[in-house]
Each structure stands twice: as C-alpha cells, then as structure tokens.
Amino acid sequence: MFGREFLIMKALILNSGVGSRMGVLTSEHPKCMTEVTNKDTILSRQLKQIANAGIDEVVMTTGLFDSVLVSYCQSLELPIRITFVKNPVYKDTNYIYSIYCAREYLDDDIIMMHGDLVFDNEVFDAVLAHDGSCMTVSSTIPLPQKDFKAVIQNGRVTKVGVEFFSEAMAAQPLYKIKKENWKAWLDSITAYCEDNKVKCYAENAFNEISGGCVIQPLDVKNRLCSEIDDSEDLAVVASRLWEVENRTVYMCFSTDVLHSGHIEIIRKAERLGKVIIGVLSDEAIVSYKRFPLMPYSERKTMFENIVGVYKVVEQATLSYKENLEKYQPSYVVHGDDWKAGFQKPVRDEVICALAAYGGKLVEFPYSHDEKYLTLENRVRVDLSLPDVRRARLKRTIEMKGTVTAIEAHSGITGLIAEQTVVYQNGEAHQFDAMWVSSLCDSTAKGKPDIELVDMTSRFRTIDDIMEVTTKPIIFDGDTGGLTEHFVYTVKTLERMGVSMVIIEDKTGLKKNSLFGNEVRQTQDGIPDFCAKIIAGKKAQKTKDFMICARIESLILEQGMEDALERAFAFVDAGADAIMIHSRKKEPSEIFEFVERFREKNSLTPIVVVPTAFNSITEEEFKERGVNVVIYANQLTRTGFPAMQNAARTILENHRAKECDDMCMPIKDIITLIPEDY
Ligand code: SPV
Ligand code: MG
C-alpha cells in the first residue's frame, strides 16, 4: 500500500468478556461487535485504526461467540493477520487468564486494548508515537468510582485498579508496552495464573512488579477514550463519535502530479476527520508556481477519486480565507514548510481565520525527498517541449483573461523572465510569457531595429531562450517580410514551439514605432496585409499557434476609424489577436480603440505594449478588455545603462574596485542559472 510502513509491533485485543451489562445488545454476539456508528462496530473501528497505523499482526482473545467473532473479523477483509486465542474457561476467569493463554504469541512490543474501548485517532496516534511504554489516563476527567484509575508517582504508573483514589488519575486500558516491560508484566501474569489467581485483572499482576516495569501515563485529557459497559455508555460514546467523525479537515493542493507524499499526508489528514480538498484554480497556480500540466477540472477529478477524500472544492486564490469561512473545517492540515518564506502570510491568515471559530492548524513535516524534486523537474522539462509550450499562451489567456509578457533577448534575460516572482500579501506574481522584441534583439546585437537582423539570427535568439526556460514565447515578427517568406517563418516558429507571432501592418524599410514619424514609414494596404495573414494562417499546422495583427494607424496618425477598420478586416482575414499601438503617454486613444473594438468583438484577444502609456496598471487593462500586456524593452533599457555605468566607473578609477557595489555577486549569478534544466 502507498507510503505505508508496517510497524514491528503486535496489537492485543481482549475480547473474552461476556458483556452481560449490555443486555439484548450482546445476546447474539460479543460486546465488541456492537455498532457505534452507522458503518462501524467497536471492533471494526479498532481494527481499522490498527491497520491504518501500519500494524499488521493482531492477537485476539475470544470466549463466548468466538466463531461469530472469527467470521466477522474475516468479513472485514483488512490487511492484518489475526491470531485468535480462545480462553476455554472464559466464564470462570478474567482476562488475565486470556492473556496467559495467548502468551506464546506475545513476544514483541505490544499495543494492548480492551475490546470495548473506543478512542479517537488522535489518542491512538499519541499512544503509537510515545517513546516508551504508556497507559492512557486523563487529567481532566473526574475520578470514576468503579472504573480503572492509575496511581502516578514520579511520572510513572505505579498501580492500576478500581480501588486507588490517592495520587490517581482516571485511566483507560489502552497501553503501548515495550518488549522488555511487557516481559516483566507477562512473567507476573504467568505466575499469577499458575498460582490459580485468575479472577483478578491483569493489572493486579502489574501492580506487583511496577517497580521493574516502567509505564508512563499518557494524558489524553478530554479526547475520546472510553469503554462501553452498558447502553448508557453506548449512547454517550456514539454521540461523541458522531461529532468526531463529522469533523472536517481542509487541505489545499496545487499539484498536477500525485505522488506518495501527497497520499501520505491525505492519509494523515483522514485520521483527523472527513477530508475536504481545496484544489487551487489554474489562475492561482499560474500566479505563483508554473503552468499546471492538467487543468482544474482534471485535477479536481483526480482528487475526487482518492479513497477517503470526502469532498473536493475549488480554491480560487492562494488565500484560504474564503473557503475556511464557508466550510469551517475543524482542522487545516499543511506541511510545515510554510512557517517561513512566501507562504507565511497565507499561514498567518489561516491561523486567524481558524481562531475566529475555534478551528485548529495541524502541520506535518514537509518531505524534501529527492524523488519529488526530480518529478517536479520532469514536469518542467515537459512544459518546455514545443507542443506543450506552444499551446500554453492561448490556454493562459483563456484561464486568466489577461496575461503579461516581458522581453527577453538572450538566455539570461529569458531566465529572469522565467524565474522572477514577487510575493505581496500572500499573493505571488510572475510573468506569464516572454516577448522576443525586434528592438531588443537588434540592440543586443548592436544593430538598428530595421529588420536588419535576419530571421536565422532571430531564431537563434529564440533557441537560446527556449533552451533554459519553459514559459510561452511571443515573437515580434516585424512586418512579417514578404508574404512568400512569412509562410516559412510561421512554420519555423510553430515547429520551435513559439506561441504567437505579431506582425505589423507596414511595408518597406521598417523603423521602430517609438522613434516617431521623422523617418518615413509606409503602412501596408488592408488587402495586402489581409493576404499576408491569410497565407500565414494557411501555412500554420497546429491549432494553438496565433498570428496577431499589429495596427500602426495611431502611431502613423491615420486616425481611430482607420485603426478600427483595419482591426475588423484583419480579424476577418483570420488574425487570432489584434495589437493596437500608441506613442502617446496619455492612454485615451488606446482606451477608445479597445472600447469601440469590444463593442463589436468581445472575443478576439487585444494586445498592448504600454511603453509610452505606462501609468496604466494591468488590472485596469483587464477591466477594459485587454488580454495581453507586453513589457517590451524594460530589461534592455535597464540592463545596458548599468553596463555603461560600470564601464565608465572602471575607466574613471583605473581599476574595478569602485564598481564592486554595482555588481551582482557571483553567487547570485550561480543561483539564477540552474545547473541542470
Ligand atoms: C519591439 O519591442 O521591438 C516592438 C514594440 O516592436 S515597440 O518597440 O513598442 O514598437
Ligand atoms: Mg519590434
């Protein structure tokens, strides 16, 4: 079974008692077969808890109705081996004699429990986790008159019985006993029985040798750990169990690849209550991690099919708050990795939200296992493959509504675009895509942005970026060149895994749009540019590749009507997106275009490059119906002045010392560049 390690420990369940105080409830079967919930008896519950804890060997003493009990246990089909030991004189002896009968099977560490004991998983977990030998006691329950009490002295249980009231605590017969302690106790039990002292408790034998048998008290306080002696007890325990079993546990997952670590933590959560899984929305995942390999709907189905998961719901943001308020789970379970780092504010908010209604946070140690890291790296490799990468831009636009891209003109700028993440108020932000700008690509090569850098060289740049990144690429195709050439460009870009090419409606010697109109620029005619789009779309082989038509009418001062006429014509010709450009700082003409375009076309994605109109936030663009925001040249325009400055500083000082503070430490460069992608 997934992630389960079997413990070298046996469970001893004492079921030889007659259970006469239960009346008709035990007229046909032993007490342990009494139903305590609508799906479990006392015994099936105990056995499931034992099996779930990874104990696969049980010794069970029986008496009256022993064949009913044996076939019942078999019908449960649990992954445990049960050795049944019948006490032949169960009517005339107490369980001390049953243990004596079973002694030859009891030579390991043991978990001992009475067959009428009901305890919750937290109690059992604490017993199992105890380092030494222990017995469950409660410091909060009043001392019972007739039931077991344990005398506690110097942190040890020195006596167990119904007659002790001094220095005593209420105690329940649920023990974990280490082999060496058990040997001492079992020897004493054997001596008792062989001396015909068989009508007392096994604890009487313990009391004789407690000086040489270290059993510590394990305080379970108010947690459920109760014996069922009569129908009154049954009613109380059943109602507490109902409450325990209806507790819910909330966990959030972003993963698209399930591994044993996930199953393990779900299993642990399941022991606390009914597991509700919040599956993070695609948008939330893209914002902080990486593009999910599987969309939300498939990830939801995956979790719904895990045995023991009660419910799967969407968690739309990294914040748990909304779902915690809605479902009010008794527990939130998480790995302890979020105590520090970017998830800390999310954790703090969870603690606050839980405190508002009395919920609890349970954190399990986070596994940094190599194999999980390898799995994640494999996913990243998959994401970088052409078919997967190409399709992702379209899907991310559908998912998020508005995506962002930043320019990259080399492997290192690609890595910056890929890896930069900013965490703010429990949210994470990163770029969705990369823009391979003609301006920046040309600038990096020391050349003007006039379609001088040929396509072979531009493809080389794409290749450099692709080799070290996974994010989708939008390629600045300038004018697209001659239609006869453009069709080849489309095919090559598609083959490489580029997601979108943007071509601008200009002909002749193209100059960068931001330079102004001092240099004469010719806008292409609508029919010719439409023909180029049609030819490009025809050349395209996959459904995911996008050709975006860029309209230069506002740059070339041809007016809004011209821009809109072109936009609709280009969409009719098959353009998958429209880029509208402007040189004005003031965004009103862009906004007017978007508004008027959207009046007639609500679907075709709109792309903007807010280099001039840079005061507008992504949120505002989104509200107005823009789908792609490209930061087209900021890495180039910040990087190169820094280099000029360093060069000047060295020249001025005739040495490099003065420019040290401007330099990125070598260590940071190494961190930026992963060794093996
Ligand atoms: C580029 O980045 O090369 C572009 C966008 O074409 S812009 O410089 O704004 O014209
Ligand atoms: Mg360009």
Task: Provide a concise account of the structure shown.
This protein is α/β, with parallel strands linked by helices. The protein is 40% helix and 21% strand. The longest helix has 20 residues, at 634-653.
How would you describe the overall organization of this protein?
This protein is an alpha/beta fold and 677 residues long. 40% of the residues lie in helices and 21% in strands. It contains 24 helices and 28 strands. Strands 1, 2, 3, 4, 6, 7, 8, 9 and 10 form a nine-stranded mixed beta sheet that branches. Strand 15, helix 12 (344-357) and strand 16 form a beta-alpha-beta unit. Helix 3 crosses helix 5 (179-194), helix 15 packs across helix 17 and helix 20 packs across helix 21. The longest helix is centred in the C-terminal third of the chain and has 20 residues, at 634-653. The two termini are 33 Å apart. The structure holds sulfopyruvate and magnesium ion. Residues 437-439, 449, 476, 478 line the site of magnesium ion.
Secondary-structure map:
Blueprint: E1 7-15, H1 42-52, E2 55-62, H2 66-75, E3 81-86, H3 95-101, E4 110-114, E5 117-119, H4 121-129, E6 134-138, E7 149-153, E8 156-161, E9 168-177, H5 179-194, H6 202-209, E10 216-219, E11 225-227, H7 231-245, E12 248-253, H8 260-270, E13 274-280, H9 282-288, H10 296-304, E14 309-315, H11 321-327, E15 331-335, H12 344-357, E16 360-364, H13 370-384, H14 386-400, E17 403-407, H15 411-419, E18 421-424, E19 427-430, E20 433-436, H16 438-444, H17 455-468, E21 473-476, H18 483-496, E22 500-504, E23 506-507, E24 522-523, H19 526-539, E25 546-551, H20 560-573, E26 577-580, H21 588-600, E27 606-608, H22 618-624, E28 628-631, H23 634-653, H24 666-672
Parallel strand pairs: 1-2, 1-4, 2-3, 6-10, 12-13, 12-15, 13-14, 15-16, 17-20, 17-28, 20-21, 21-22, 22-25, 25-26, 26-27, 27-28
Antiparallel strand pairs: 4-9, 5-11, 6-9, 7-8, 7-9, 18-19, 23-24
The structure holds sulfopyruvate (SPV) and magnesium ion.
The site of magnesium ion has 6 residues, from α16.
